[in-house]
## 1
Amino acid sequence: MIEIGRLGRPHGLKGEQALVPCALTALELHAVRTFTWQGPDGATRPLTLATARPANDRMLVRFADVRDREGASALTNGRVMVEPERLPDPGPGLAYTFRLIGLEVVTEEGRAVGTVAEIWPTPANAVLVVRGEGGEVLVPSVPEFVKAIDLGARRITVRLLPGMEETGQGP
C-alpha cells in the first residue's frame, strides 16, 4: 500500500477535509474511488470517496460515510492508502514519485552516483536526492539533467554538471 496523502482538519460542517499532499487530481481520486484509512495508532478502515475538489494548494475530499464535522474529525491525521496497481496510468513518459525511490542513478557515461533516497517537491520542479558512497547529490528533475528513467531496469540516467557531486548541491 502507498500513501496518497494525509487527512487534515475538517473544512466546513458537511464532512469535507483537506488531503495533503495529494499528487492525484480529483478525477484520478474518483477513478480509484476506494481507499484504506490508517490512523496514527495503526487502526485501519475502508473509505469510499464521495467528493473531491481542488481548493488552492490542497485537495478537499469527503467520504461516503462521513456526513458532518465530527465524522471528519475522527479521520484527521490519518493516512489515505491504496494499492499501487489501482492507481491510474500517469501517462507516457511519466511516473509516480514513489516508483522512483530506490532506483539506481548513473551518469550518461555509466558511472554509479547512488540511489534515489527522497524527492523534494519545489515550486519550480522536483529535486531528486541521490545518496551514494560520495555523499548526497541533488539533481533537478528536468530534462536537462534527467536523461532517462527505466523503471524496468530500476535505473535513472542523469547528466551532472562539474561540481555537483563535490558540493552536494544542485546547480
## 2
Amino acid sequence: MLICFFDQEGIIHQEFVPPGMTVNADFYCDVLRRLRENVRRKRPQKGQNQNFIIHHDNAPAHRSFKVSQFLAKNNMTVIPHPLYSPDLAPCDFFLFPKLKLRMKSRRFNTIGEIQEESQQVLDTIPKRYFQGCFQAWQKRWDHCIRAKGEYSEGDGAI
C-alpha cells in the first residue's frame, strides 16, 4: 500500500506500508509526523507558520481520536471528506490512475520492484499535472456543493 501526500508543486511525502502492517491510528500518526517534517524541509514557506491544510479520506485510522488530537496539536486543519466520495480524493481520481496506467499489464516478481516502478512514476509526473489536479479537485468540490452532497453523475466527473 502506498500513502502519498502532494500539493500543486508535486509530491511532498510518500511511503509504502510494510507488508503485513495495518494502518492504524498509531501508524498514521507516525506518517503524519514524517509528513510534517517533509513539509518543513520541502515547502519551507508552508512549514514556517506550522499551520497547513490536509485532505484525506474517511479511512478509520484517519478518523480516530488519536489522529484528531495529533492534527489539532500540530495545527493541521483537515478538509472534511464526504462519506463514499472517492471522486473527491485526488489520489483516487488523479494519482493512482496514473500509477495504474504505467504499470498496467506488467508482471513484477517482488514487492520491491513494484515500489521501485511506483517511485519512478511518481518522480516523472510534471508539476503542471499536479496543478491541473487541484483545478479538477476544485471543480469536483463545486459540483458536490451544488448537489448538496448527493450522489450524481455528469459534470462532476473529470
